[in-house]
């Protein structure tokens, strides 16, 4: 039987109408575990890519969609277990606690899921972006080969209305650079100005224009959430 290959040059190519939406358990048991054991995969749909050799927007595939990669973990220090997740223009930083992946059949833990966020620049003063990676790894077992394979799901997290909250924040594009700052007009102001005559960089004043300013991201206590140009 001919092996089904749906990934070419690191790019996932599915027939029209097909979607690849595996569960966490399926990713760990049906793909990652089979990869580590050198068993046949359900389909050659996940390419092997070193995700830390490129920035997330430069990785193969359609950046508008979720992308899946088999990758190996590079140890940061020779005598340690800490992974090196630095890329060309930034680094991946873990956030929150690892999540246990439990088998629906045996009710046993089969893997772990780590969530990471991409930062531009160098730690500890990196600039947080909306690129997110879920890194899946197997639970270490004696009967499994000592491989450093992990399975990565990378995607761009879209924010509602592209603003964190009512206070506002600098909008980012997919490369993590700050975008244009939106301007809101107060149509209830007593003095209404001709909007067609207002300069693009107008600030708050009698014309009733309020410009959104930069702020610190309360979600991260160590690093800034927005880039200053």
Tell me what you see in this structure.
- The protein has 2 domains: 7-156, Metal Binding Protein, Guanine Nucleotide Exchange Factor, Chain A (Beta Complex), CATH 2.170.150; 162-229, no CATH class.
- The protein has one helix at 24-36; strands spanning 7-8, 11-12, 67-72, 90-94, 99-102, 109-120, 127-138, 149-156, 183-185, 209-211.
- It has 229 residues and is mostly beta strands.
- The strands form 3 sheets. Strands 3, 4, 5, 6, 7 and 8 form a 6-stranded antiparallel sheet that branches.
- It is globular, with a radius of gyration of 22 Å.
Could you give a short description of this structure?
The protein is mainly β and about 230 residues long. It has one helix and ten strands, in the order ββαββββββββ.
């Amino acid at each position: 039987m001919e092996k089904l290959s749906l990934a070419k040059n690191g790019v996932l190519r599915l027939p029209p109408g097909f979607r690849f939406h595996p569960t966490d358990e399926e990713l760990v048991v049906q793909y990652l575990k089979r990869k580590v054991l050198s068993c046949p995969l359900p389909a050659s749909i996940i390419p092997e890519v070193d995700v830390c050799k490129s920035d997330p927007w430069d990785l193969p595939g359609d950046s508008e969609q979720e992308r899946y990669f088999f990758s190996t973990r590079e140890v940061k220090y020779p005598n340690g277990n800490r992974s090196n997740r630095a890329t060309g223009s930034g680094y991946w930083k873990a956030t929150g606690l690892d999540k246990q992946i439990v088998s629906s059949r045996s009710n046993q833990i089969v893997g772990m899921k780590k969530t990471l966020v991409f930062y531009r620049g160098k730690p500890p003063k990196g600039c947080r972006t909306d690129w997110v990676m879920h890194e899946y790894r197997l639970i270490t077992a004696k009967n499994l080969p000592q491989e450093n394979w992990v399975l990565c799901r990378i995607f761009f997290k879209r924010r509602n209305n592209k603003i964190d909250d009512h206070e506002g924040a600098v909008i980012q594009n997919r490369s993590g650079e700050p975008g244009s700052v939106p301007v809101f007009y107060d149509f209830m102001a007593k003095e209404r100005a001709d909007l067609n005559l207002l300069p693009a960089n107008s600030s708050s004043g009698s014309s009733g224009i309020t410009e959104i300013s930069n702020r610190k991201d309360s979600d991260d206590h160590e690093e800034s959430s927005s880039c200053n140009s």
